[in-house]
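Q: What structure does this chain adopt?
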Amino acid sequence: MKAMGISQFKAHAVEILARIARTKENIVITKRGKPLARVIPYHDLNAVPRPGKLADTLVFEKDIVSPLGEEMWEGGVL
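A:
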């Protein structure tokens, strides 16, 4: 997360906001070296979620007991 002074933000606000929208990075605005605000990209909370990169990576097995045998699933003391 980058930080920048409030005077620099005020001078270049339009360009900085465009960069935040494009790169999806957060920027902390500081005043005299102390954090004042954080500018984050807009995220629509009501948007329908789309499948991500891991959507097709899970494999669902129909029977998880048979490959090991039922005796392996018995709860016993070792």
